Amino acid sequence: MFAELAADLADLPALLDRARLAAQRVLGSLDDRPVAAAALNPAPLALPESGDGLVAALELFGARWESGLSGSAGPRYLGFVTGGATPAALAGDWLTAAADQNANTGTGSAAAGIEREAIGWLGELFGLPLAGAFVSGATMSNLVGLAIGREWLGEQAGVSVTEDGVGALGDIRVLSGSPHSSIGKSLSILGVGRRHVVTLPTLPGREAVDVSALEAALRSGPAIVVANAGTVNTVDFDDIQAVVALKQRYEFWLHVDAAFGGFAAVSPNYAHLVAGWEGADSVCVDLHKWLNVPYDSAVQFTRRPDLQAEVFHNAGSYLGLPGEHPEFMHLTPETSRRLRALPAWFTLAAYGRAGHRDIVERNVDSARALGERVDGSDRFRLLAPVRLNVVCFTTTGDERVGDVLDAVSRSGEAFLTPTVYQGVPAIRAAFSNWRTGPADVGRVCSALGM
């Protein structure tokens, strides 16, 4: 064995403790370190010829890169929709790496059983009695749901997309009021094409689809419908119950994109926003957002795992064919899969329904508190009601949104991201971190000059 590798193996417990201290240093500095770090551009370093072991690597990382990490795990990182990692989820992630299981099959490991249990728990948490699997994020979850929907369209037409290709389907329509960018990306990957997204009218002043316009579009024949449970800019929700009711009269595959808005189901105060989503054919929920597990983790649900296995089964002779209960390698784009279910299992086991309801409700309270400050400000104005955990607002005078965001980032106090809403340059503040509290809202408001 290579000498440094053997030495590290012999001293592994002490080295893991040093790695723990390095992680503790990062987490312990979240309250004070800049939330958005300045970009680092150190001079290129040649690949080490032999290396000096883990201690030297830790020191090198600390010197070259550690200060450039953002505070995205902390309470005032409000860009995109970014959760942190609860203590239990972090422990689960460490154990995932330590055990290094390939969760593609139930043969020889409990990994698949852990994943099935975690999916069952998530189904209970969300009220979704559907089959599911873990994937890497919302984009991949949407892709899987749309791929199953594409196969369903083939089933209606009497062709197999899996065997004959997407060209066997002819025209494909994907209908949505405010489709997320990942929908177009997924359709590009699936060979359907971005141009096949038909963006339907939305309700006045809303991002929610006009259900009457959707019904009119469905009269033209089978389609895939993407309903939104929480849009990116304003967390608007389609009337999912009304969309599900259309399935009694029209043939369509209903995919619900609930990347973060699906967590409304966790709180009785907001569960009405996703009422009816159990009637969907596939659902996307992103877990490294509001479940607060480390990247990368999402779940996809479907009522047609048989079609899912048609699309994703791996036909290698040494892998076997999918049966009545397919192995996970036959259900997702990946064959080799890390045990990304374990951090979710740990945080659900540690904090249960009540703990995650608390996270959701505290984040919504924080968003509403910021919204009230914006609404009472002379410098900013709200562009939409604060429906859940995102505040969408803009400047009132000549001040540019980009300049405001740059100043906030330079302050180190917070990080927010820009958007455009109904043609207006805007700011998004998305609350989804388990640590965030009233004091953090106050610091964000001070950084914004309110």
From TrEMBL:
One of its GO terms (molecular function) is aromatic-L-amino-acid decarboxylase activity. The keyword Lyase applies. It comes from Kibdelosporangium phytohabitans. Its cofactor is pyridoxal 5'-phosphate. This is Amino acid decarboxylase. One of its GO terms (biological process) is carboxylic acid metabolic process. The lineage of its organism: Bacteria, Bacillati, Actinomycetota, Actinomycetes, Pseudonocardiales. InterPro entries: Aromatic_deC, PyrdxlP-dep_de-COase, PyrdxlP-dep_Trfase, PyrdxlP-dep_Trfase_major, PyrdxlP-dep_Trfase_small. Belongs to the group II decarboxylase family. It comes from the Bacteria. Keywords: Decarboxylase, Lyase, Pyridoxal phosphate. The modification N6-(pyridoxal phosphate)lysine is found at residue 289.
